[in-house]
Amino acid sequence: MYDISLPSPGFGTFRLKGDTVKHALTHALNAGFNHVDTAQIYENEQDVGEAISEHTRKRGDIFITTKVWFDNFEKSAFIPSVEESLTKLKTDYVDLLLIHWPSPDGKVPMSEYLPELVSCMHKGLTRGIGVSNFTPELLEQAFSVIGEDTISVNQIEVHPLFQNRDTVNYCQRKGIAVVGYMPVANGKVMENDVLKAIAKEHQTTPASIAIAWQHQLGVVPIPSSTNEEHIQANLDAIKIRLTPEQMSKIEKIDTGKRLIDPDFAPDW
Asked: Would you call 42 a catalytic residue per the annotation?
C-alpha cells in the first residue's frame, strides 16, 4: 500500500463549476489548503486543473483526489477515462484515485474494475487508490479481489447528524483512512442546539465545531465553500480542541439519516 498522508482538511468541489470553482479554489489555496477533492461526475476537473496550474503553489505541494464514475468501470473505458481526467487536471498524476460508487446492482463486477484501479497506480497515473461509498461488506468483497493492503481510503458521508460509526470504526480498524464528505450537513449543523451551544463556548460557529469534531475523530473533512471568510474558518477549525464532554454531547445528536442516498446507492 502506498503510505498515503492525507492533508486535513481538504477542499471539496462538489457542485462548484466554472469561474465559481476557480475563484473558490484560488481562495482556498491562498488560505493554505493543500488537498483538493474533485470527481469525473462533478464536471469541473478542467476548471480545477486551470486554477491549480495558474496558482503560484507547486504541483507537488498540492494533493489532488479525483474519482472514477461507474459509467467508466468497464475495462475498455477505465484507464482512458483516468487519462482524460489527468489531461483536464493538467497533471501527469493524481495523489489519490477513488472508485466513486460501487457499480449499481453489480452491473460491472469488482473483478473487472478494481484491477484497473490497481493498474492506474502501477502505471503512475495515481500515487494511491481507494474507494468511496463502500460499506464494510463491500470492502470485504474488494479485499477478496485486490487484497487488504491495497485500499488506502474510503470516502463516505460523515457529519454530526449522520456519524456513520460502523463504517468509520471498521475502516480505522483496518488501517483505511476515512475522508468525510458533507461535514456540515449542507448547513443543517447550523440549526442544531447542541452544536450552537458548543460553538458559543469556543466563540465560533456550529460549522467549525462540526469540522473540528470530524478531525478529532481522525476523519479527514472536505468542506466546500465559495465564501472567502468561510473558507478560512473551515481551515482554522481543525485547531479547535473539543473536550471529552463536548465530544460525548455531539455523539448523542446522531440522527442516523443520510443526506446522500441516490437510487444507485448500495444496500447500506
From this structure: yes
What residue ranges of the chain have pLDDT lower than 50? 1-2
Q: CATH number of the domain at 11-183, please? A: 3.20.20.100
Residue entry with cell 460553538: 199
Q: What is the C-alpha to C-alpha distance for residues 146 and 152, in angstroms, rounded to an integer?
A: 12
Q: Cα–Cα distance between 104 and 226 in angstroms, integer?
A: 32
Residue from 195, 214, 191 nearest 206 by CA: 195
Please tell me the distance from the alpha carbon of residue 152 to that of residue 174, in angstroms, as a whole number. 10
Domain residue ranges in the chain: 11-183
Q: Are 150 and 96 in contact (CB under 8 A)?
A: no
Cell numbers given for 245: 464532554
CB 104 within 8 A of CB 76: no
Q: Is 32 helix (H, G, I), strand (E, B) or coil?
A: coil
Beta bridge partners of 37: 12, 65
The tens digit of pLDDT for each residue in 21-30 reads 999 999 999 9
Query: Which pLDDT belongs to residue 4?
Result: 65
Specify whether the CB–CB gap between 134 and 166 falls below 8 A.
no
CB atoms within 10 A of CB 41: 16
Residue 156 C-alpha cell reads as: 463516505
Given 2, 42, 170, 181, which residue is catalytic?
42
Torsion from C-alpha of 11, 16, 19, 25, nearest 10 degrees: 0
Q: So what's the pLDDT on residue 5?
A: 84
Question: What pLDDT, on the 0 to 100 scale, is given for residue 2?
Answer: 44
What are the pLDDT digits (tens) for 54-67?
Answer: 999 999 999 999 99
